[in-house]
Amino acid sequence: MSSPIKRQIVVVVVVVVVVVVVVVIVVLVGVVVTVAVVVVVVVVVVVVVEAVVVVVVIQVVALVAAAPKVVVVVVAAAVVALSNSVVVVAAVVAAVVVVVVVVVVAEVGVGVVVVVVVVVVVVVVIVVLVGVVVTVAVVVVVVVVVVVVTVVVVVVSVVVTVAVVVVVEVVVIAAELIVFAISFVV
């Protein structure tokens, strides 16, 4: 299996997992709790980013220790201010989301992503609402119906085709007999 195909499979699996998790959480605990969880996750990410920024600031201060104190203070203040800015955090999150969407679409295409998301959402909602047993039963019934309909269509088409061929052959033979009889009489 080539590397691009592996990447596409991984991307699809990641999309499926994310959609399943989000849908299950929304269905089980509601939109409000889901939003609260997302907010908490964002806050944690922001805290981690700020911690990383502090480390970076310390490293920057160490690197520019020979520079004038004013430059060090301005750089540190600017970095800390940016790290605490909600706008910057929102921009970073938006950029990450855009990058993820672009990568996913580039890997598997818009159609595949939409189909996967829709199918997963429908299946997960059905499973959560009616249970696994009912979902499996519905899937089995649908598969059986599809198979039966397909077989019926194939059989009917074959029977109709054979019937048409037989009728055409009979007509052709009858026409030939009529022509032969006329030519014999004449």
TrEMBL record:
The chain crosses the membrane at residues 9-29, 35-64, 71-104, 110-129, 136-156, 162-185. Coiled coil: none annotated. GO terms for molecular function: amino acid:sodium symporter activity. One of its GO terms (cellular component) is plasma membrane. It is found in: Cell membrane. Its main location: membrane. Keywords: Cell membrane, Membrane, Transmembrane, Transmembrane helix, Transport. Residues 8-183 form the ABC transmembrane type-1 domain. This is ABC transmembrane type-1 domain-containing protein. InterPro entries: MetI-like, Na/Ala_symport. It is a multi-pass membrane protein.
